[in-house]
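Bug #77: duplicate submission created two jobs. Keeping one. Sequence:
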Amino acid sequence: MSDNRPIGVFDSGVGGLTVAREIMRQIPDESIVYFGDTARVPYGTKSQATILRFVRQIIHFLKTQDVKAIVIACNTASAYALDIVEREIDLPIIGVVKPGARTAVETTKNGRIGVIATDATINSGMYTRYIQSISPDMAVFGRACPLFVPLVEEGMLHDFVTEEIANRYLADLKSQNIDTLILGCTHYPLLRSLIGKCMGPKVQLVNPAYETAVSLRRMLGEKDLLADPIPAGKTPQHRFFVSDGAEKFEIFANSILPYDIRRTRVIDIEGYEE
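Kept job's structure:
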């Protein structure tokens, strides 16, 4: 059996495009409906109640697009809302926290794992709880890096200011003798080379965006939801939506995705209250 309906992917802004990119690479026959909540970014400084309201609105919107599964391509939303909303909807749904955490446990040699993320993700303790539920002896060290999101959103991926901030943020983790570091925000893989330079070659970086795409492929296969192979010369029908700033979003998306985005629609996400 197969299912050619699209996969719904959403994030607080452009960071989730790293997850969309990995889905395009790992499951190239699948179509995506992407929503970036660019009017309300960042999520990392907001309360759980606010994030949960946002997530419910976005899921409502994605269901109107007839998606077959949903990916919460945002660590903060995954940490604060996934366990709640997966009990509320009748679609398969996954987040980015658990796939990254599992891979970190499999990767570390000394049992000392670092996590960099937004304030909300670090404060939720989600990564620590899930890592230690797999392996209780793991030591987990978290560091919030709130300025990384706006720097990525502004396209300052290789700026000396970003490198200086990264060095300041990561100094504490370097002193903890970690050998594995989870890039616990979907914006952060876009700073991978800079973060790798700061941490040095002995620290393995875990990209939850890649691990989520792999987990999604496995889940779709188990549920007989994989799309049919696309004929040669054809491409999937991806659709993109934002809550504000379509032109800026498109410029950024076209700089990192394997397919050019020709149209991004702005929608009033507040109109999708359940």
